Amino acid sequence: MTTLSTVLITGASTGIGATYADRFARRGHDLVLVARDQARLDTLAARLREQYGVAVDVLRADLTNDADLSTLEARLRDDARIGILINNAGMAQSGGFAQQSAEAIERLIKLNTTAPTRLAAAVATRFAESGSGAIVNIGSVVAFAPEFGMTIYGATKAFVLFLSQGLHQELSPKGVYVQAVLPASTRTEIWERAGIDINQITDIMDVNELVDAALVGFDRRELVTIPPLHVAERWDALDGARQGLMSDIRQTNAAERYRATNKE
Ligand SMILES: NC(=O)C1=CN([C@@H]2O[C@H](COP(=O)(O)OP(=O)(O)OC[C@H]3O[C@@H](n4cnc5c(N)ncnc54)[C@H](OP(=O)(O)O)[C@@H]3O)[C@@H](O)[C@H]2O)C=CC1
Ligand SMILES: N[C@@H](C=O)C(=O)O
Known about the structure:
The protein is α/β, with parallel strands linked by helices. Helices cover 47% and strands 12% of the residues.
């Protein structure tokens, strides 16, 4: 019987991360739960041990803190039992671009992009050498939506999508599965934490439904999983157009429409 991989989940104290923890424990996986709130992590860990009989390790870490991030990188690099990384921890943004302080910008980018990148890097070599392993990056449909006015947040999520597609290109030939999960509005604390009134949000998905759908994509080894997207062809068309654009842009001369004319 194959031994199930241990799953390390960031942002596991509540919301999407805590739901992933329940689902992987239900599947029989041992867990490493990472977040800042030790008490909430301990309570969740005790429930999951009791309910599912799995080993659950708690690792308190602030992923915007370099020392904590380095400690987590070392755990990921050195603990060969960890075969699945769920890069979930993240925060949203309230207020316009011009309202963001330098500290808020730094924190948002560190948590939403630097941390998942460094954690993925911490496992990439070990996973590739073993010819196995999975990296799940939690993005957002806001990556497609500059219209939403969450410019820095959306940019971090566009980064996560590209990171996932790039990791897939580099690591899937070596047996490593990479998944980008793009939720839309989901009922968690992220809204309150960002100072956004959740009651102003329409069409908000239950977190259990989101994670269960994301796991269907995971089990199918899908690269980009967008649970709220009912018309899957929309994504296929968008990514197909992107690939089509790539085939057009290797040119030695600028496009006709950019040719300076003496009339201008
Ligand atoms: N909810 C939604 O509508 C959507 C969410 N997403 C994405 O899903 C992911 C999870 O979000 P969601 O569950 O909704 O959010 P929640 O705010 O409910 O949970 C966020 C989790 O991240 C942890 N976290 C926050 N800051 C830090 C930090 N500095 N260091 C370590 N852990 C931290 C929190 O734990 P603690 O405070 O204990 O550290 C918590 O466990 C995020 O990446 C988010 O961008 C994407 C699209 C939609
Ligand atoms: N977290 C949500 C916005 O703040 C989202 O990604 O939809």
